[in-house]
Amino acid sequence: MKELFEQHIKHFPHMLKYCFYEVKTHYKYYVSAFAIMLVLLIFTYLKLRITDAIDVQQSTSYYKLIGFFAYMWVFLSLFNSEKTVRKQGALYNRLSVPYYVGASSQVFLTMIMFLIVVTLTGIVSTFSTSNLIEINHLGFFYYLVMAYILLVPVASIIGVFGKYVYSARFIVFGLLIVLLFVVPILYVPNNMYAVWVNVLKLNPLFYIINGFQQSMVLGNASVTNLPYHILFYFEVAFIYLAWININKAYKTEYFK
């Protein structure tokens, strides 16, 4: 695990170069994704103003919207990582750059988009509601770091999966669609049975998305529940161990 972190830091400049290359060659794709999120923010704001929604309704709407933006980060980074590693693995080999540089760049690029749009959402929600919106900036930064730490190995594993399994893109797409219904975007966890919510919390992506929602709407509630955090750390450790073993088993540090 230490070696992976060292390699990631070593190749961080390569990742930034690839990010610029990716934006330059596929700028329409990223602009479209960012525009969709901005339109959703504007639509939500106008809808709440026109309907004269009360503060509770407004905070619930922004809660779900932030969750959807976090889901978009997960969706775009994981789905694009499969395509990136599958199509450009040979290029990484010629450049002597580990394959996960491409996967990391997808996570980083979509993180920037997410960070911008959530910042705008925080500004809009704070000024449009009275007292119910409470933003925990440290909590948000914590979940931002945790999300990056989680998504890099997951995106890399999916990239390797796509290299060897032709139908991987369809499997990944299907699982990401299912994810939309099991994370708190279409529903609010407080309105569900506690047992069912605890089952859903076993999903580390639920932890991330719900953490962003709470840190941007509920404030300090995002950093409570210590057992929940400990469970996530164990899950991340397991994912990194799986990533290390996959690298060793398939010798995919550089694609041949």
Descriptive overview:
GO terms for molecular function: ABC-type transporter activity. InterPro entries: ABC2_TM. It is a single chain. By secondary structure, the chain is an all-alpha fold. The chain has one domain (2-250). Helix content is 80%, strand content 0%. It contains ten helices and no strands. The protein has helices at residues 2-10, 12-25, 27-50, 55-94, 100-128, 137-164, 168-182, 194-200, 204-217, 226-250. Helix 2 (12-25) crosses helix 5, helix 3 (27-50) packs antiparallel against helix 4 and helix 6 packs parallel to helix 10 (226-250). The radius of gyration is 19 Å and the shape is globular. 35% of the residues are buried. Mean pLDDT is 81; it is low at 252-256.
Name the poorly predicted regions.
252-256
Mean pLDDT: 81
Number of strands: 0
Proportion of β residues? under 5%
- Terminal-residue CA separation: 23 Å
Please tally the helical runs, counting DSSP H or I stretches of 4 or more residues.
10
The major β-sheet equals:
none
Percent of residues in helices comes to: over 70%
Over all CA atoms, what is the radius of gyration? 19 Å
Order of helices and strands: HHHHHHHHHH
Number of domains: 1
User: Which structural class should the secondary elements be placed in?
Assistant: mainly alpha
